[in-house]
Amino acid sequence: MNEDTTASAPRTILREMASPKATEKANLGFDRSLIKRLRSVIRTWAKRHRDRQELLNLLEQDHRIARDMGSTDQDLRAWAQKPFWRP
Q1: First to last CA, the chain
Q2: Enclosing H/E stretch for 73
Q3: Which of 11, 12, 30, 48 has the most CB atoms around its CB within 10 Å?
Q4: For residue range 32-87, what is the model confidence (pLDDT) as tens digits?
Q5: Could you write out the DSSP letters of every residue in 11-56?
């Protein structure tokens, strides 16, 4: 009887691995990591967009800000107008 139980264990594991539930669990792990990565990228892009818009607003309010930052107005405007997906 012990031999039958031992011999059937690999078959049981193989059946479980082939089941749709096991496949679904494996896919969820991948999907979750992909979703986490996408959320992180979107947060980064949103922060860049907010920061660049804020810089443009500050430059509109006071032209001396560029000099205070050790740069020129043109350089800061060029940087702030870059697309959000570019660092």
Answers
A1: 66
A2: helix 73-80
A3: 48
A4: 899 999 999 999 999 999 999 999 999 999 989 999 999 999 999 999 999 999 99
A5: HHHHHHHHSHHHHHHHHHHHHHHHHHHHHHHHHHHHHHHHHHHHHH
